[in-house]
Design goal:
heterodimer; A: 159 residues; five-stranded mixed β-sheet; two-stranded antiparallel sheet; 5 helices; 8 strands; 36% helix; elongated; B: alpha/beta; Nucleotidyltransferase, domain 5; two-stranded parallel ribbon
Chain lengths: 159, 145
Amino acid sequence: MKLERRKVPPEIFTGSMADVTFLLIIYFMVTMAFSATKGLDFAVPKEETTQVQLEREEAVEVKVTPQGTYLVDGRPLALSQFADYLKGKIVPGKLVEGKPVVEKPVILRPDPQAPYGAMMDAFDELRQVKDKLGLARDLNISLPTQREIENLWGALGAL
Amino acid sequence: MIRIRRVGRKADAYIPTATMADIVFLLIIFFIVTYNIEVDKARVQLPRTTVRTDVPRDAAYVSVDTEGVIRVSGGKETSVPVATVEEVQTFAQNVVAQAPDKAFVVKADKGTRYQTIDRVLDALKQARVRTIFLLSEQRTVSDQS
């Protein structure tokens, strides 16, 4: 007697693979952190540049008060007025690649009691001045720490 | 009358699932590529800025939360709280000694008094950190109005 062999069609089961991959997706979605990965960068000035910063009257000083308002060279200004004020600091007649430049460094000095957010708003606004005024290069913004300011005054007092 | 009989193979009811696996794999690849491990779990309200630059993936973190608690992380491990700012400096010095070009990210709540941030920045500057990022969120049009 001849036995008939039942033919099984060749097949790879992919149904369970979809389950596994769905589980993986759920894992990634649950553990995914939508954290901020961007911020304002600033390069820490090198030791040599401290000599340049000694000329205090040559710089534009932006103070942040404890109330979160701003004093630019002693005058109370709103954030939106920063660009206009700095327009007056453009070096007359000097063009770099056909664009004006502001050579005066800008010193950002927040009060110890000032909110960090207010300082960041001012920093952000100063970083935008280049585009707002169509300047050739970014403003030279420095953010000296309290210790650096004290050291500077110490150095000036010793002179 | 001619009777028409349907001749031919009967199609089996079947849902093709092979392509679904492809889609799911694409989704997995997307999640793996965009996955970033959050080294610092401190919940803070970040300041909002218009100018933003990408922070390097392996950057070290210093976070200051609303209560003034400072946490540090070398970029791979979960952040740990430190008691004083001097410890931040020691930590940064160790990190810089191993990788002199390591970027540091300062993640702080926008309501924090600048005094604390100033001391943190001073500690990083003293440790000869070259690049510092101040973590922020995107400022939108509604924020400006």
